[in-house]
Amino acid sequence: MDLGSMGFLKALLVAVYALHPYFSHAETAPNYSFVHESTTAPPVSYHDYIVVGGGAAGCPLAATLSETANVLVLERGGSPYRNPGKTDKGNFFLTLLDPSPDSYAQIFITEDGVYNHRARVLGGGTVINAGFYSRASTEFVEESGLDEALVNDAYQWVENKVVFKSPLLQWQTAVRDGLLEAGVLPYNGFTNEHINGTKIGSTIFDMNDHRHSAADLLEYSDPKNIIVYLHATVTKILFTTQTVGSRPRAIGVIYEDALGEKHTAYLTNDSKNEIIVSAGAIGSSQLLMLSGIGPRSQLEPLGIKVVMDQPMVGQGMADNTLNGLIIPSPNPVELSLLSTVGISLLVNYIEAGSGLNLAPSFGWISKFLLSILDQTTIGSFFDTRLNGGIIVQKVARPLSTGHLELRSTDPNETPKVSFNYFQEPEDLRKCVQGMETIINVVNAKAFSKFRYRTISTQQLLNVVAALPLNQRPRHFDTASSLEQFCNDTVMTFWHHHGGCQVGKVVDEDYKVIGVDGLRVIDASTFSFTPGTNPQATVMMLGRAMGVRIQKDRLS
Hints:
Organism: Gossypium stocksii
Pfam families: GMC_oxred_C, GMC_oxred_N
Shape: globular
Signal peptide: 1-26
Keywords: Disulfide bond, FAD, Flavoprotein, Signal
GO molecular function: flavin adenine dinucleotide binding; oxidoreductase activity, acting on CH-OH group of donors
Helix content: 25-40%
């Protein structure tokens, strides 16, 4: 298909998508009357529910609770609507690498020497991720204890607002056909279900490549019953005990605005009112510790009063690993992010992207890569966008886990986080298998249009091995041994989970064990990430638990 017919096809698809209700969500930024800067907040306020963290779980949760109760949402970041083009599909890397103080992604380095990011914006990780939308496996839903009908209704509630069918142009088609050649079978076509084989999933980018996020789910809110404060950093959850030895009860929070002024938000006097922490895998564990719920051995040296000695807070932290190849292309590539996925259940997931924007300051990489490839005839790898793409693999359900430790009592400082990547040999085996699949895809006949014949897959491995992708040491056999390649070039898939796991820190209703009036609802409660990418299930969980809490309140 030539470029002219591609342009016609895209125009036709845009027209079809606009007419079809599944694809025709509003593209204009919502004008929320209830979202304000925290500097405008009163010194003291009272609410039925206080949701800490306006992210993938917090936004749908708060929107649902506002249907019948008064809700306060405290988000430490700003609004994604202030500069909506910033999060368009092509700017994925630019958003992640933004070093400004109010960037949407807070950069940190794990104790394992891997660069990582925490979302810091209304909408959370759904504002900075690669946009792929896919539901959880049946197994995950069964283990969660949630009613299947409620789960399906909650997924649909999310999908009606922010989910679109992924476009399938040339690069993603070549990856799909390469996966099938490589034996990642069967082909399941387009589906949101998590099933073995190769499929096309959904996305939160619309056909104009504009991002939609969990923040859009606040459109479901009753504006009379909700208020959202931005740049509101919660420093501590407040507790009271009725009698000596009785269970502590959460009664409020202290938070700071952008100017450093302190505010206090209390729960109104009703035993069914609650504080719900949805600050993410790192933020939720951190806040519980800062508030006195965590390992005594960590809290007391920092001068934190122990409310409850809970050694499991911050434990079981895990992160799905990312390894892959960068492939220069002799032919033009479309802008794409994670449309096609190859699923080998319980082993790995293969995903790809192409044509992404890069800052001019990254021009040195193009020259560097060409020198590694020893090529003078392939032209620049990119000018302002990638002239090629990436194919990456994610280890499913890593067995390796780590932990989180506070560095200080400053809530703005990311704690020490260790994920212990590839500590378990089984994780390394899965990575090697995934890299073998990627190499087979790149060598597939279906992918040949996007390969320079003069560049071998060994040279592509050499390129990745030479790039400063992390702060881990390189070895003489980094590029010649796939085991060493996985260890030395590991990156994050940004799918952090654990730290407040069900059965260890929270019960099956996500209530913090041993404490009244406090829940944690987000990915910190997971023992493994659901599906290929967790955002669908985290948003679903926020909606589903909001419905359950509502029913309990009214019963």
